[in-house]
Structure formats: C-alpha cells, structure tokens
User: Fold these one by one.
Assistant:
Number 1:
Amino acid sequence: PGRREPSHTAPRRPFRRKTRTHAMSANKRLNEGHQPLYGKMIPFGDPAWYRGHNSPYYRETHHAWRAKIRAFCESEIMPYCREWDDEKKLPDDLLRKCWEAQILPASCGGKWPTEYVGKGPGDFDAFHELIMIDELSRCGSGGVMWGIMGGLAIGLPPVLLFGSKFLKDKVAKGCLTGEKRICLCITEPTAGSDVANLKCSAVKSPCGKYYTVNGEKKWITNGLMSDYFTVAARTGGPGHEGISMILVEKTMPGVKCRQMDCTGVWASGTTYITFEDVKVPVENLIGKEGHGFRYIMYNFNHERWMLIAQATRFARVCLEESVKHALRRKTFGKKLIEHPVIRFKIAEMARQVEATQAQLEALTYQMMTMSKEEQNLKLGGDTAMLKVQATKVYEYCARESQQVLGGISYVKGGLGEKVERLGREVRAYAVPGGSEEIMLDLSVRQALK
C-alpha cells in the first residue's frame, strides 16, 4: 500500500470495446485493391501487383491492357530483337502494328489523343502508359523501345501542346498511326545539358515568310527514319530567351542525316543531322518565338519518367534472367540458387528494384492527379532524383547479372542475349535525358526553392 508505479511506466489506458461500426469499417478494407495473380511467378520477375499484392493504383482496365500489351510484345517483338539490332533498324510494318495495338497514341503523355485517333482504352491514365512501357521493356532492348516510341514521345508533344491547328493537322495523325515519324532535335556537338547555349540558328527572311536554318544536331533518336524534326533553334539573342522551336521536314533541301555508330540502342537510329540553309515556312514555327526553352522544359519530366520506367524494367529483366539461370545451372554438385553468395546477389538486386518500382508508381500517381503545370512545379526534382536511382539500379543489376550468368552474358544471342545487350546499353540511359550529376544537382536546387 502506498507504493507508486515507477515513473517510466506508461499510464494505463481505459479499455475501449471496438464498436460494430469500427469492425465493419476494418473488414470493409480487407482485400481493398486486390490484384489477381499474373505471369509466370518467377521470383521478382514482375512487379508486386502481378504477384497478388494489393495496390490502390490498378483496376480491371489496367489488367486487360496489361494482357494485351504482353501478348503483343511476346509475339511481335521479343523473337526479333537481335535481328533488328543487327540490322540497326526496325521493320517498316512494325509501327503500323504498334498503332493497331494502340501503343503509339499511349506514348505521348497526358490525355488520349481522341481528336486524331479515336477512342482509346477505357479510363486511360498514366498507369496505362506505365504498363505499356513496362511490358514492352520486357524485350530487353533499349534500341527497340526507342525505335518504337523514342522520337514520337518527345518530338510530337511540343506540336500537340503548343503548335497551331495547321501544324497539328499536318503531322499528328500520321505520326500517331505510324504512317509518319517525328523526332526531337535539341542536343548539339557542343551543347547537351546546357540547352540555353545551343548554336543552331533560324534567321527570319526580310520578307518574313520563312526561316533559314543552319546548324548541327547530334545523338538524335529516330532521326534517320523521321519525316519531321522538332528543332530547337536560336531565333534571337543569347541565352534561353533567344530559343524557338520549329518543325523542319526531311524533304526540305539542305537536310542531311547520317547514322551514328554507338555502343548500343542500335535499332533506334541514332543520328547526326546537319541543316544547311534550310528554308522553313514561318507557319512551321511551334508556338511563339523565344518560347522554345520553356516548351522544352515543359516535357522533360515526362521524357525522364519514360526513361525511369524503361530502366526499372531493364533492371528487373537482369534480375529475372539471373533467377532463371540460377535455378537451371549446376556447379559443384548443386544448383546456383543453393549457393548463399548467389542468393545474396539476387536479394541485393531485388531490394533495389522493388524499392525503385514503388517510387515509380508513387510518382506516376502524382502525375495522374496533378495538372501539367503543377507537375512541372512540384515533380521536377523528384523525377530527376528517381532518374538517377533507376539508372544506377539498372547499372548495378546489369553487372551483377553478368556475374551470375558468367560467360553466356558476354555472347550475343542464346540464353544470355538480354543481359549481354542490356549491359551495353546502360550508358544510353544514364546520360541522355540528363546525366547523373545534372539530375542530382537539379533535385537539390528544386528542394531549396
């Protein structure tokens, strides 16, 4: 009697009986966001929601879309990636097939372009686009991915968002249906991330009827096979305020293209373009003079998000190929997967891939629920940081999968084909769209605003 409880003991809370309403509410949330099993169930071979994990992001329309894109990829793309890589181009009829599968209109971000291609998947949103990129990227070829959508996804949006009705009617439908191709021309031999200091010029004629374009563009995805070039050119003084965007057509005299011999992404047609006294009608100006820099910045988040989605699945492909090889290959009398050091490598890859996937889905949700203006205000730093995360994880998984697969990862074709190719294409994702150093600096500067 008279003893006190020690001061560190928490006071007892009165017992509260759970009300019927509370219990019903809790039960109602059980299985919320339930997702059916899908795929071959190879450990870590697909995102968590394929494996039956509940998710608030995906609905029945997403399930049907996923099945459709997977079937297309496995029948029309996967068997031919090596062939297309060796030929350094995609077949002429592939884009038509991609149009029929609704892939091309799903590549440009934002709303479905109903005005030009009719109705799309029910309730089309950013997660439909994410599923499309993720499923197609199972082919394990950056060259094929960029060959299909690399030019379209970054070259057409400036026209759709800022171009005149004349320009939209001129190019949109043809590009979205695969009859025509378009690319974005920003990078130059002396200007990559430093967009504000590009040198390509567009001088308006005294009569005011056309621009004369002179300059060079380098590392242009799809340039070799494009009909249209969305070109950033200097129409004014130095700095970003002197930049405009102009639609140049390949048939215009003075346009010269040659394919660049790069380490990877061969099927995408990486191109060096020269403009020599190319006369372009003033009607081909996209938006307003001097607004080109802001048009470029407006679509950068979406471009980087696409690279993130592809890099994340490529990392997962390396992980999946490692698991498959470890389950079939035997060394020292037992399967590779039975060696602790191999399980360690797989776990290290898996923890990074799954974390990156979760952040990608969270970012996609923000894109889906924000206006384009709000996205550009709030998501630039997050997108830049995740771009570094995704490409670093891809690089790590490419290396570790090569260690697991051994010699077959160094040979084109065969069981190690995807890992060999993806190992060559790492830098094509780490540098374009913003190098690691530029992206990390941008993410901090955005956070300090």
Number 2:
Amino acid sequence: MFASATTFIRKAIRSSTAAASCNAQQFRSISITPALLEKLNVQGLADKVNLEGQNVLMRVDLNVPLSKDDDVTVTDDTRLQAIAPTAKFLLEKGANVILCSHFGRPKGEIIETGKNGRLNPVVDPLKNILGVDVKKVDDCMGEEVEAAAKSLTKGEVLLLENTRFYKGETKNDATLAAGLGSLADYFVMDAFGTAHRAHSSTAGVTDYMKLSAAGFLLDKELKYLKGAVDKPNRPLCAIIGGAKVSTKLPVIESLLEKCDTILLGGGMIFTFYKALGYDIGKSMLEEEYVELAGKLMKMAEEKGVKLILPPDVILADKFAEDATTAIAKASEISGDWMGLDVGPETLEIFKEEIGKSNTIVFNGPMGVFEMKPFACGTITVAELMAEATDRGATTIVGGGDSVAAVNQAGLGDRVSHISTGGGASLELLEGKELPGVAALSEA
C-alpha cells in the first residue's frame, strides 16, 4: 500500500540564477478598492503637518526570532527591515521617532531575556538598519519615559520597552493608552501583525493623538491583501495550509466567495479527510470541525470553486526527523501512521493549478517544514510561487510560517509581497475590519 518516501525525488523546478533576480517592474499591478484609501497614511500626515522637531509615536512589530543558543542574537531581521521605510521617511522630515512594540507574550510580567523579554536584542540591529543611534528606555510610560521623550530634539529615535509588560495592553487599557499618548502628538501605525487587535498601543492610543496615520508597511499590506482578493487579476488561487483547521475554516469560507481555486495542505487536511470518511491513522484531527469541513466541501461544489485536497501524503511512524516515512494515497492511511506533508502527486496538481493562476495567495505551510523530511511540500510551493511571479502573476505570502519557509528557500525577493502579519492577514482575507486600522484618522 505504501511507497518509500526516500524513492521520491522532487523535480527541480527552481529557475536559473539569472531568472532569480526578478525586479520589481515585473510585478503585475493590482486593483485597489476606494475604501482602502480612506485612512490617512504617513505621506498624507507629512503633507498636513510640518513634522520637523515633532515627536511621532510609531507602533511597530519587533517580534523577531532569537537564537536558541543565547536568547539574545536576532536570527531573522525581516520585521526590523520592514519598518525602515516609514521610520526613515519620518526622520528625513525631521521628526523624532518613538518606537513601541510588544515582544512575545509576557502576560504582564517583566521578563529580562528571551522571546517574551525586554527589547534590548533589537537595539543594535535597528541602529544598523536605520543608520542612526537608537536610545532605549526600560518602560513604555511614566515620568522617566516622558522626560526621555521631551528631551528629543530633531531626527532622533527612542525605543520604548515591551508594551505587554503591562497586563492592560491587551485589554485596551485607557491608562496605558494615555501614557503612550503623552509622548507624542502624532501616531503612525505600522504594525500590521497586530492591527487585528484592539490593544492600548494599536487602537486606544489614537484617542490621545492629534492625527493617526498608516505607515508605508501597513498601507502596502492593506492594498495587496485586500486588493488581491477583492479585485484580483483572475484566475485567483489561494493556497491554505497550517496545522489547525479551526483557524482556517473562516478564511476558507470567505475565500469561497472570491477564489477560483483553493488548494489545501498542512495538518488541517486530515479533518477534511475525516469528513470524507477516511481513516487518518494518528494524524492531527480537530473532531469538532469535521462536520463544518464537510459543509465547506459541499459549498465549494455548489459555487463551482475548485477546492482541492491532496490526493497523497507523506507519512511518518512518529513525529520526529528520524522517523520512518512512506507515501500513501489519502484514502489509504491506517494504523499508527501520521501525515506530515503532502505527496508528489499533490505537488504535480498544485503546479498545474498555480501555473494557470494570475493572482496567488499562500498562507500556511503544507507540512512540518521545520523537519527536513517533511519540508518538500512547502518549499516546492514557495518555488512555484516564485515561478509564477517571474511570469507576471501577483503572488502574496502571508502568515509567519509561510514567510519563514519562503525566506528559508531563498525566494523572498521573488514574490510580489510578503505579509508581516499572521492573524491579521487571515482576518483581512476573511473580510473583517481591523481595529488598528479603523482607529486611524480619515484621509
């Protein structure tokens, strides 16, 4: 019934080195709905206000991965690089930029180091990226912070401490919002990854500002993600993966109204298989969503949307890199086997569907790509996205794991847009209003 996974040799689909240097002019333009242009952006703020010597509070997302060896070294500075255009623009206008961000989930506790700790690890990388000194304070509100903010003169950068050291941050606490608001007259929201949260530093703070605007990063995210699905250059294909079906079902339901084709992968596919009556062995399952998965498949059929489940998967006898692996038809999983990646037949089908599409959104890995034996599906999809970009398609990668996989494959510069948001990307694709955007000033 099973074929050895070691016999599966993935076809080389990466284009030549010359083709890899795809320039931005090759990217296909996308339609932008008027609603996306209603909020003030940072360019509009600079047109309205002389920012020279003014303090601007800039909400950013500095949640970068740290080395497991020392809990200090930044191993991927993608999110730091992403804030540079807005920060540098403000500095060029003579503004003082006060950066604020959360870091991990400290849940109201002060943690010195690690992924939930202080923001000290990002100071030196930010200095290099912004090309200016970055001063840091050990709090995000209070007398000392206010004094530091008032001492800024022109074109300086001040980094505040982890906003989630305060429990009130995630509850949109007015005291924290006011404390942040006392540091500046103007606010720029450039943390797309937290725009779907009504927190003190993303939404509440705007009540204490003269004007609040979207940064270049946020503006671009809105235009790409909303524009791509609201008025796409068809055919529109969504590739949806990830472990938990519970987080993706609302997105899939929304995309059924917009997409021509939806390709599914990741751990969530086994809930769909269960809805089809398949044995899934010890594969991941969210039993309470089996019925809804079945309804979504029926909805897709009724709407004429191609909802494609992988016909084959890579199996393992345990959740480990040194597991014994096998390839099996989706309908032939049994016993103690668990599915950890999509199979070669699936990738051939995905290649055909992606090749026919002019707008492609990729959210969520196809398998446990952190383990080499189960990375093939995700990396192959990343390569297919790059090929699609090269021929002129609009390609968008959203979700932390998807972004990590594309960067791991060295293909970050060969997709039209890499989203910096996980949950925010999903909620925008669902058609939900993002509190961090709704709170901004009108244009």
Number 3:
Amino acid sequence: MVVDRRRCLVVAVLLASADAVRPAVATRPPAVRTAAPVMIMDQLKKIADDGALAVKQAAAEKVVGERVAAKLAAAQAKYDIPQKYTNLMQSFFTSYMTEIYLADRDLDEYEQILSTLMKKVLETAQEPHTFQPFHEAIRAPFDYYKMGCDFANGMVDADRSLVLGAEQIEKMQQQIAAGDNVVLFANHQSEADPQIFSVLLDPKVPGFAEETIFVAGDRVTTDLLAMPFSMGRNLLCIFSKKHVDNPPELKSTKQRRDLAARQPRGSREMAERRPRDSRE
C-alpha cells in the first residue's frame, strides 16, 4: 500500500510539474500547469478510501474481538472447550462479526445469531451428533436449517448477486414430479455452499434448495464448527476417495459406510421428490 501510494504521488507530481522542468523558450508563452489526469486522481482517491477502510476495519476488529473474547471466556467457564477450538472460534467469529459491521448490518441481530451458533457448537462438542448414511435435516425442536440460513444471510449481498440458469429450475421440478432424479454437479468453494444456495434461491423458488440432498464428506460431519450447519441439511454422508484410505485400519469400515450411503433407508422415496447436489 505504501509503495503504491508513493508511486502514484510521484507520478502525479511529475505530471503536474512537467512544465516547471521544461527548458524555457523565449518565443513561447509561459506554460500553464495542467491538472493531474482523472485516472491519477481516481487512484489517489482509492488509496484514501482504502486507508479509511483499513482504519475502520482495524477498529472494528478490536471492538468485535473484545466482545467475542468475552463471550468465549464465559462459555469456557461453563464448557470444557479444547484450546485449539477456542482459538479457531475466536478467529472465525471475530472475522464474521467484523464483516457484518463493515457491511452496515444490524450488529445486535447478528450477535444474537452468533450467540445461538456458539451455543450449538458447544453443545455438539459435549455430545457430537452421529450422522447416518442418509441424514435428514433437523428442523425441530431446534431448526438447524434456519440457523444456517440466518448466519449465511449476513455474508450475502443479495442485491448484487446473480443467479444464472434459474430457468432450469422449473424443468427440474417437472422432472422430479414425473419421478425422475435430478443430480446437480458443482465445483463448490466452501462448506457454506448449501446455506448460500438457500439464501439465494429460497426467496425465488421456495422449497427447492431446502429439500436438496447434498453429498457430504466426513469433514463437515465431524468438524466442531461445521457440524451444526450440516445438521440442518439433507445429506448423503460418505468418505471421499481422498480420505477413505486414512487411517488404513478404518478403510473397510469407511467402504461399508459408503456402500450403505448409496442405498440409505428412505433414499428412494426421497430421490423421487428431491433434487440432489453431488459435489467433489
């Protein structure tokens, strides 16, 4: 940032004072100093804006970090949280609330959502959920689906997000109604993809994303932070080829589990009415 700022300023000075270093010619009228090009001014403005944003972000991280730390300290007094997860939760929750602040969202609303998530994370740490080969979303007595969507909603700029190919959804719904299966292949980016899928599609096509069955590897069904989000989705739980061999003594168990996931109880009935998203 400093290097770029200096470069832009030097260029601006040279352009603005080019006539001052030009040899004088008696027959020419005095040179008029020209204004710096708009592009240079835009760059300088961007540097100033970036600097202001950096200051705002640093201040937000400090304030939010202190509030998150206080919540974690209170939770640590009640629950025996492993240190590695304490550090992870501190970093993750601070980053999340900082972005909520920078996006001018309602801090009180999202702090309550964060508190609910933190509570569920700590509960599953004490008593981890066991995922069956076919896991159906848990909606009661606590609605894990809603919690995941509420959490993801704070990170999605719906007004500027694009949903491409929406015209295919009606075709898929017709195929499902006719008893066919629909499989969506996606090059996914993060464990939050199912929740983002819902945030973008629920207002447009109610029920479509909600009833989609996702293929889930063991990380999202065992990780302390990911588990509450996974509990709110319909999942076919498998071990990927990348992880099925490790550790070697569990390979046969994992292979049997993967075989069971291909024909889980109730999967045929579910497949008749739900689209599936298969992700590598």
